[in-house]
Every structure is written in C-alpha cells, then in structure tokens.
DNA sequence: ACTTTTGCTAATAAAAAAGTGAGTCATGGC
DNA sequence: GCCATGACTCACTTTTTTATTAGCAAAAGT
C-alpha cells in the first residue's frame, strides 16, 4: 500500500526484532487490521471478494485487496481465477498452513477470552 | 502515550473488531513493538528497568516505560517497588497469566519458524 | 553543595497504517 | 453504443504509532 523508509530507526528496529525471532514477523502480519477476520471469513465460506466485503461490513476495498494479497503472499490462502467467466470470478481458500494458523488463533482466542481482562 | 480520536473511523473499526472477538484485542496489544520482547526479557531474569533496557538495546526509555505499563495494566507482569532503598529499586515479574501467554507465544513462535516462510 | 543513579514523564517530530473517493478493465446483456 | 458487474488499483488525507530529546525527584556518595 505504501513504502517503508529503509533508513529510518523505525524500520531498522522492526528488522532487528524480526531477525531476533520469527514471532515478531508473524505478529506484525497478524496485527494488520482485518487480516485475521478475512481469513476466518474465507474459512466460513465467504470465498469471493464481494462475499468477504459484505461479511466484514466496514472493511474498505483497498484494505481488503491488500489483506488478500498479504495472505496469498505468505501462503495462508490460495487464489483461483475463473477467467472464462465474465466478469472474471475469483475464489479464495485457506491453505493447510492457513488452517493450522487458524487453529492456533482459536486457541489464543480462547486464552484471550478466559484468562485476559480487557474490561478496563 | 498519545490519545486516540474516539470519533474516527479508524478507532470505530478497531472497536468493532474488538467487540467481535477478544483475539483482536490481544493481537492489538501484542503488536505493540517490543512488548513481547519485554515480557521475554523479564522472564529471562532482566527484572529491572535498566536490565531490560540493556537487554533490548535499541528500545527507548519512553517506549519501555509504556510497554511496562501496558503489561502491568493487563496483569501480565507485576511491579514491586523497594522504596526504602535509594534510588528506589523497582522489579518486575511475570504473573501466572503472563507465564501462560508466554507459553502460547512459544508455540506460535515455533509455528512461525517451521510452517511460515518469511524469506521473501 | 554538587553530582550521580534509577525509573521514569512530557513535548514534539517522523514514520507507518488505515480510510476516502474515484477510476480501471474486460466482458456481456439491453 | 451504453451501462452494469466483479475484482480490484491509485492518489491522497487522516489517524495512530514510534522515535528523539530533554527533563524530573529523592536520596546517597564525594
């Protein structure tokens, strides 16, 4: 969506952390707003751009497009294009890695609900 | 550190997501830069402000102070002040919840290293 | 009396992320 | 020929997050 300044301390600190531990890369990815919800939405059967958009009612087109690209880039989803149809239909599906991640996020969600107190 | 604009779409979307699922709150917390590393550092025995600062060499004072406050707020760490000493010594320790979270993050870290490919 | 130490805070600037609104492209039906 | 549809893309603005720099308080050492 936008480019990062490679010589900023901000960027260099991020690189430092990501090199220290892959968890930082994963969290950085997961923290992109709507990203996990897009995954879950696909998992629940909203496999087309317009379906997801409808499901996550406040997401905007460009953010959804970006999140789909990220998920595809990191092989958490796969994109299938039906070019013969018109307008071209595109469908998304979770990969095996995506399914596994989704399960771990489920566990984490459970932890968040049971053990954490976000009420304040 | 700074205040959020309560009437912005940005904020309202965040609220929408956090109300939808506590996982979004947890991820939002975990995504604050250095936060998990501060936890891990404390866990490894760097229990004082200056120890952590030394361990995470590029973290700045105000960010560290903020992250410690957040961790304390969400009861992932406890702060103990030794006021009789001078200058006042302060020590941090993980709570039970903190320990549990740390374990789950370990699992996630393992997933990130084994199943994800961040090389591109 | 002055300096040092520890554990911070506050103001501001820089960078990154998210949101807004419009536009594109290749069909295919009217 | 004109409009609609689906899945996006682009330029720009706003909001949020991070980093930079400076400073503070209380007691103890010199």
Automatic annotation (TrEMBL), chains A, B:
<protein>
    <submittedName>
        <fullName>DNA-binding HxlR family transcriptional regulator</fullName>
    </submittedName>
</protein>
<keyword id="KW-0805">Transcription regulation</keyword>
<dbReference type="GO" id="GO:0003677">
    <property type="term" value="F:DNA binding"/>
</dbReference>
<keyword id="KW-0804">Transcription</keyword>
<keyword id="KW-0238">DNA-binding</keyword>
<feature type="domain" description="HTH hxlR-type">
    <location>
        <begin position="21"/>
        <end position="120"/>
    </location>
</feature>
<dbReference type="InterPro" id="IPR036390">
    <property type="entry name" value="WH_DNA-bd_sf"/>
</dbReference>
<dbReference type="InterPro" id="IPR036388">
    <property type="entry name" value="WH-like_DNA-bd_sf"/>
</dbReference>
<dbReference type="InterPro" id="IPR002577">
    <property type="entry name" value="HTH_HxlR"/>
</dbReference>
<dbReference type="Pfam" id="PF01638">
    <property type="entry name" value="HxlR"/>
</dbReference>
């Amino acid at each position: 969506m936008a480019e990062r300044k490679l010589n900023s301390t901000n960027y260099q600190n991020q690189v430092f952390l990501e090199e220290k531990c892959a968890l930082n890369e994963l969290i950085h990815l997961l923290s992109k707003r709507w990203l996990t919800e897009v995954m879950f939405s696909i998992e629940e059967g909203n496999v087309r751009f317009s379906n997801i958009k409808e499901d996550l009612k406040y997401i905007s087109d460009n953010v959804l497009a970006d999140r789909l690209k990220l998920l595809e880039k990191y092989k958490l989803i796969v994109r299938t294009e039906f070019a013969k149809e018109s307008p071209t239909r595109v469908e998304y599906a979770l990969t095996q890695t995506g399914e596994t991640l989704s399960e771990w996020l489920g566990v984490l969600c459970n932890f968040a609900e049971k053990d954490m107190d976000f009420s304040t």
